[in-house]
């Protein structure tokens, strides 16, 4: 397995193999955020095919309560591994470690991640990797479907943080 920073040419492959919902590609939106300098979009590859992704959001969580409790903390988001049969094989763990290394390279000492209360599998992964609960919040997100209808969501989440060891 190889993990790389997303390139423009990768977006079409991500759409093809991992798919996207909405009128605008999920992957294209993440790549645009990276191009604007607001994030780094990592892609996991296996045998030349994308099998996972993670977005490291350098501006942190959008929730004001989280930002106040952990100022300057970048947020891991959009972690996913596909197809399902590749889950629990270390791909998500490798993506998280790669994101943590990027944070260390920037001189950051803490990383955070929001996890939905309805996602115990993800919460268990983050706990195993050393992330600890900081506070609860409502995660808000939306997307526009192919008919132009915007769907908005508000999910109960817990923000987890991890203190990073110094760079190697």
Explain what this protein looks like in three dimensions.
The chain has five helices and seven strands, in the order E-H-H-E-E-H-E-H-E-H-E-E. It has a seven-stranded mixed β-sheet, sandwiched between helices. It has one domain (2-163): Gcn5-related N-acetyltransferase (GNAT) (Aminopeptidase). The chain is of the alpha+beta class.
Question: Termini, distance in Å?
Answer: 22 Å
CATH architecture classification name = 3-Layer(aba) Sandwich
- Beta-strand percentage? 35-45%
**Helix and strand composition category:** alpha+beta
CATH topology call? Aminopeptidase
Q: For this structure, what is the CATH homologous superfamily? A: Gcn5-related N-acetyltransferase (GNAT)
Low-pLDDT parts are none
The chain-level mean pLDDT equals 94
Question: What order do the helices and strands follow?
Answer: EHHEEHEHEHEE
- CATH top level? Alpha Beta
Number of domains: 1
Write the layout of secondary structure elements.
Elements: E1 2-5, H1 10-17, H2 26-35, E2 39-46, E3 49-57, H3 64-69, E4 75-81, H4 91-105, E5 110-116, H5 120-128, E6 132-144, E7 150-163
Parallel strand pairs: 4-5
Antiparallel strand pairs: 1-2, 2-3, 3-4, 5-7, 6-7
Helix pairs in contact: 1-2
Give a brief outline of the structure:
The protein is of the alpha+beta class. It is 29% helix and 37% strand.
